[in-house]
């Protein structure tokens, strides 16, 4: 997984950040911090790196000028598609040793743990 991400110049953690933005649209840095359960300094670093690469934009929140709103750019949207492809390949590789019956059985067992 990290090799696939590295080829796109995406570091571990940035993938989840970008996918979170894709799923929720624009979010404040505080909302991102809460959703990703990381420190504010970590979010600030991820946002700044992503903004520098043109993957996100950061604008002042008109409702609270102390807060910034983060949103994916077109380039960021394109990268999220590639990230999902990396995850899909990882999943396919990981479960390749299982046949369809075993995959269904594993899914059933994992869903019991999720309850």
Describe the structure.
This protein is an alpha+beta fold and 115 residues long. The chain contains six helices and three strands. The two termini are 28 Å apart.
Brief characterization of the structure:
The protein has 115 residues and is an alpha+beta fold.
Mean pLDDT over the full residue set: 93
Please mark out the parts with pLDDT under 50 across 5 or more consecutive residues, or reply none: none
Quaternary status of these chains?
A: single chain
Helix content: 55-70%
Strand content: 5-15%
| Overall shape | elongated
SSE pattern: HHEHHEEHH
Write the topology of this structure.
Layout lengths: L1 H6 L6 H11 L2 E2 H8 L3 H13 L3 E6 L2 E9 L1 H22 L4 H14 L2
Antiparallel strand pairs: 1-3, 2-3
What are the defining features of this structure?
single chain, 115 residues, alpha+beta, 3-stranded antiparallel β-sheet, 6 helices
């Amino acid at each position: 997984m990290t090799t696939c991400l590295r080829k796109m110049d995406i570091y571990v953690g940035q993938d989840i950040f970008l996918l979170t933005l894709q799923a929720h649209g624009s979010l404040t840095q505080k909302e991102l911090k809460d959703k990703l359960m990381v420190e504010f300094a970590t979010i600030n670093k991820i946002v700044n790196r992503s903004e520098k690469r043109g993957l996100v934009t950061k604008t002042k929140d008109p409702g609270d000028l102390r807060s910034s709103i983060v949103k994916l750019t077109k380039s960021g949207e394109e990268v999220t598609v590639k990230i999902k492809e990396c995850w899909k390949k990882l999943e396919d590789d990981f479960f390749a040793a299982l046949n369809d019956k075993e995959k269904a059985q594993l899914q059933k067992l994992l869903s019991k743990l999720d309850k």
